[in-house]
Amino acid sequence: MRKTIIAGNWKMNHTGEEGAAVLQSLAARVTAKEGMEVVVAPVFPYLASAVQIAAGSSVTISAQNMHWKDTGAYTGEVSPAMLVDIGVTHVIIGHSERREYFNETDETVNLKVKAALSHKLTPIVCCGESLEQRERGEMKVWIEGQIQQAFADVAAEDMTQVVIAYEPIWAIGTGRTATHEQAQEVCAIIRHKIGTLYDPSLADGISILYGGSVKGGNIAALTQCADIDGALVGGASLQADDFMDIIDHAV
Ligand code: PEP
């Protein structure tokens, strides 16, 4: 059975105090639902205290990015070894905002995926098409290309540790959610592609999330779809009540 994962990406939001209050509330309210994992991704400076606040609860902590090297002259960067050292378990890789504003490429996504896996960090690997690509009929080829490049040279045994998030760029922070039919279509394309790159039974075990304006009101329809195993949530993960609404209604 695949895990259902509800992951909150706080992006560049919340002071230490604000984030701690939200996390304390989540840690107290999230109960261990069988087969469900709740993940929160605060900004780098507060990760270590987030790990401490979440300790012993059913919430785990993710970074929003990392470098692929362990140490070195990479000013401003944070390594996978450092994330593991402070108790972080997940890392978001290749979010469209990083691709758009920080020159993240399929090549660096692949380097980061391999580095995360070698450190036993769970990579939440993002892919997604723009509205223009969708309207030009290029969505399938684009998504398949992103998946192929993200996992180039990743061994099959490591793939069991991977989480994939389908996030159509046109649905992120826009209030415009993909319909559950649209999201299901692409998540099935992703699963099929993994199946052809590895094998269908391996693909069947991978959790694929949808991201893009998810809220309490649309999570049930999304997670009822055959190939959607949870959500990567931006805006609606910032307040404990909104995020709990999603967690409580995920199927
Ligand atoms: C995201 O940034 O990953 C995201 C899905 O944002 P939002 O939920 O705000 O659309």
UniProtKB/TrEMBL annotation:
Pfam families for this protein: TIM (PF00121)
Catalytic activity: D-glyceraldehyde 3-phosphate = dihydroxyacetone phosphate
GO molecular-function terms, A-Z: triose-phosphate isomerase activity
Record's protein name: Triosephosphate isomerase
Family statement: Belongs to the triosephosphate isomerase family.
Biological-process GO terms, alphabetical: gluconeogenesis; glyceraldehyde-3-phosphate biosynthetic process; glycerol catabolic process; glycolytic process
A GO term from the CC aspect: cytosol
The entry's keywords: Cytoplasm, Gluconeogenesis, Glycolysis, Isomerase
Locations listed in the record: Cytoplasm
Catalytic residues of the enzyme: 95, 167
Pathway membership: Carbohydrate biosynthesis; gluconeogenesis; Carbohydrate degradation; glycolysis; D-glyceraldehyde 3-phosphate from glycerone phosphate: step 1/1
Binding, substrate: 9-11, 173, 213, 234-235
